[in-house]
Write a structure and sequence with these properties.
It is built from nine helices and eleven strands. It is an alpha+beta fold. Strand 2 and strand 3 form a beta hairpin.
C-alpha cells in the first residue's frame, strides 16, 4: 500500500508560505476609517452646524463695525480699499475651500466610481490656473495699495473749498487734550468739528507713544514725544464718533477715549461760545495738573478752557526735543506747509479719484 504523498516543500525547504496577517494597529485603523465613511449624514450635518454656531458666537461682539460704517471721506476711501482687497483675495480662498470639500467627498473610500490614478503627476491646465490667478490677484492688489498709499497719505490735505480747522492733539496719561490755536480754546476728551470742513491735526505726546484713531473718520497716526505727526480728516455727516488710543500705553489705557462730534457750522459756533464761557484758562500750571496720570479704570471727565497759553504745544514738544523749540519748530511747520501745498496741487488733479474710488 502506497502512503499518500506529503505536500511538496518550496525551494527554501520551509514549506508553503502562510498568508501574512496585518498588524493589529493597521487593522483597527482600517476599521475606524470604514466606520467613519459610514457616518450618518445627519451626524455630519449636526457637527457642521455646531461649527457655524461657534463662529457666530465668536463674531457676536462685532455688532458695531465702525471701520465699515465710515462717516468721512478718508474713512470711505479706506473702506473701499479693505473691501477691494477682501473680495480679490476671496477669488482665491473660496474656490480652494470649495474644491477641498469636493475632492474629499468625491475621492472618499466608499466611492467606487472615482478614478484612481496614483501615477498622475502633471497637468498643464492645472499649472496655468494655479499660477495665473494668484499672480493677477497680487498685481491688482499691488496697484491698488500703491496708489491708495499716496492718495490716503495722512499728511496730505483734503480737497475742499472750506478753510481747514487746525487742531493740536496731545496724548497724556490717559486722556487727550485738543487745542484750537486759531480759536484760542482747548478741550479735554472732546473734539468738535463742523461737517464738511477738513480738520488738520498736529499730534504729539507728553508721555509714552500712543496712537490717535477715530475709526469712522479714518486714519490712525502715532503720537510720539518730541515729534509732530500730521493727519487730515473730515466728517461728512453730523454724529458722535468714538475716538481712542489704539496703542497700549499702560494700566489706564482702556479709559483713554474721547468723543469726536460732527456738527453744523451754527452748532460749532455755539459750541465755541460755550467753551469760551469756561472760567478756566489753560496756563502752564493747569496743564501740569492735567498731565498727572488719571486713575486706572476711571476715564477723565471733559473739561473746557476758555483760552490757551501761547506756544503751549511747542513748549510740550520742546521738553523732549529742545533743538526744535521754538524757532526750528516754526521752520519745520513752514516746510510741512510747503509740502502740503504741493500735495494739494496734486490732490486737486485727483479730486475725482478721491471722491469716487
Amino acid at each position: 500500500m502506497v502512503a499518500p504523498l506529503a505536500p511538496a516543500a518550496d525551494a527554501s525547504g520551509l514549506g508553503a508560505p502562510e498568508k501574512a496577517t496585518p498588524p493589529p494597529a493597521a487593522a483597527r485603523l482600517r476599521a475606524q476609517l470604514r466606520a467613519g465613511s459610514r457616518t450618518p449624514a445627519l451626524v455630519r450635518a449636526l457637527v457642521s452646524g455646531a461649527w457655524v454656531c461657534c463662529a457666530a458666537l465668536l463674531l457676536a461682539g462685532c455688532s458695531e463695525m465702525a471701520v465699515l460704517s465710515p462717516a468721512g471721506e478718508v474713512g470711505a476711501q479706506e473702506k473701499s480699499v479693505i473691501v477691494f482687497a477682501c473680495v480679490l483675495m476671496l477669488l482665491v480662498v473660496v474656490p480652494v475651500i470649495v474644491l477641498t470639500l469636493v475632492f474629499a467627498w468625491r475621492y472618499r473610500e466608499s466611492n467606487q466610481k472615482a478614478v484612481y490614478a496614483p501615477d498622475w503627476s502633471h497637468s498643464t491646465t492645472v499649472e496655468l490656473v494655479a499660477w495665473t490667478i494668484p499672480t493677477l490677484v497680487v498685481i491688482a492688489l499691488a496697484v491698488r495699495v500703491w496708489t491708495s498709499s499716496f492718495q490716503l497719505d495722512p499728511a496730505r490735505p483734503l480737497v475742499s473749498s472750506a478753510e481747514p480747522i487746525r487742531v493740536e492733539a496731545i496724548a497724556l496719561d490717559w486722556k487727550w487734550l485738543f487745542i484750537y490755536p486759531d480759536q484760542n480754546v482747548a478741550v479735554l476728551n472732546e473734539l468738535a468739528m463742523p461737517v464738511g470742513v477738513p480738520v488738520s491735526f498736529h499730534i504729539t505726546s507728553d508721555t509714552v507713544m500712543n496712537s490717535f484713531y477715530i475709526p469712522q473718520l479714518g486714519g490712525q497716526v502715532y503720537a510720539m514725544a518730541g515729534m509732530q505727526t500730521r493727519l487730515n480728516l473730515v466728517a461728512d455727516r453730523p454724529g458722535v464718533y468714538d475716538g481712542m488710543s489704539s496703542q497700549f500705553s499702560g494700566e489706564g489705557f482702556s479709559g483713554m477715549r474721547f468723543q469726536a462730534i460732527g456738527m453744523s457750522q451754527d452748532a460749532f459756533g455755539q459750541w465755541l461760545h460755550k467753551v469760551r464761557q469756561s472760567p478756566v484758562a489753560l496756563h502752564r500750571a493747569d496743564y501740569e495738573r492735567l498731565a498727572v496720570p488719571t486713575a486706572p479704570g476711571a476715564g477723565h471727565p471733559t473739561e473746557y478752557f476758555s483760552s490757551v497759553q501761547p506756544q503751549l504745544f511747542a513748549d510740550i514738544m520742546g521738553k523732549y526735543a529742545p533743538a526744535v523749540h521754538p524757532a526750528a519748530l516754526s521752520a519745520l511747520e513752514t516746510a510741512t506747509g510747503a509740502q502740503a501745498s504741493h500735495a494739494g496741487g496734486s490732490a486737486s488733479r485727483h479730486a475725482g479719484e478721491m471722491a469716487h474710488p
